[in-house]
Amino acid sequence: MKTRLFQFLLVLLFCVSLGAVPVLFALLPKEDFSPLEKRVLSQAPALSWNNVKDGGFAEQAEEYAADHLPGRTFLVGLNAGYDLLSGRQLTKDVYLGSGGRLFEAPVENDPAVLERNMDAINAFAQAAGRRVDLLLVPSAGYILGEALPPLAGPYPDGDIISAVGGMACSQIRSLDVTELFAGFSDPASLYYRTDHHWTSRGAYLAAGALLESCGRSAVPESAYEKTAVPGFRGSTYSRAALWGLPGEDLELWDSGGSFLVSNADGGEPQESLFYTGRLSEADMYPVFLDGNHSLVKIENRAEDARGRLLIVRDSFASCLGCFLADRYREVVLVDLRYYKSPVSQLLDEGFDDVLIVYSVGNFMTDSNIVRLS
To answer: Computed from CA positions of residues 286, 290, 293, 299, in that sequence, does the dihedral angle turn out positive or negative?
Structure first.
């Protein structure tokens, strides 16, 4: 009798749960944005004959239902925890290493992608008829290999950077900060725990090497006023869905210089390198130069500022550009994902130095680099 009662209660619980999901789905308010995942959620699909006929409505409805499933955030975190405990996390694109540090999985070393991107960069430099500096930023997984989980890797960053140097034409100067980072007294401080970007310290170290190669000197570290902003949780945190991991400090290094920052996508120019309003948003990293824009211009108002620098870049240059701006009269940053005009037209405006900077991961996955030439 007790066995049958128990079975009945299980069936009843299952039926109630099954019925509660559509009721809660209908009644609960729908969010437009997931702060933890840092992404816009799917909107309700438009019902039309063409949308139903081509199958788009069914696909969009499925995405909408998945994004607004009651308790979805909890379930996503529960699934991530199960993957971690069952040893399946190494099949994902983000690994959990020692000390609660999150790593992007190693990028694929694809010779065809290397050749395609280097052909575009070489053609750009040859057409410009001038020296172009190229910096590929090694990943945290490559530099901090001792903190990786067992069986992770290997990371091909060193092979990719070496191959790029060998494929570069005579106008390209390939800059490698791998040894500089690996030999630093505290390499773990050069990358965030919960984000794939380098920290302000990592960007400062790279900026010093770049400036020295261009015959300039970096502002001494002691001259910067450092502000630690707590509670930062970056992109790898959002992708890993391990919600129990603690946040960390995001540091702003302010040299005290006078700057004017503007971008081609609209908005009023700002007299600061740091868009502090972004610190109250789910994604805090755009505090540096307001994140990704097609073109960003930094004007240094110091009387002794000299020279112009053009940077073709990914998001790693948002923080890097803040340090380089201290030593140039003007820095212009171009993101090929959004900038649609020929970069060669910018070169006609006259620049003392030209820099191409990408993380190794973005260099091997960004299909827009071919537009450079």
So the answer is: negative
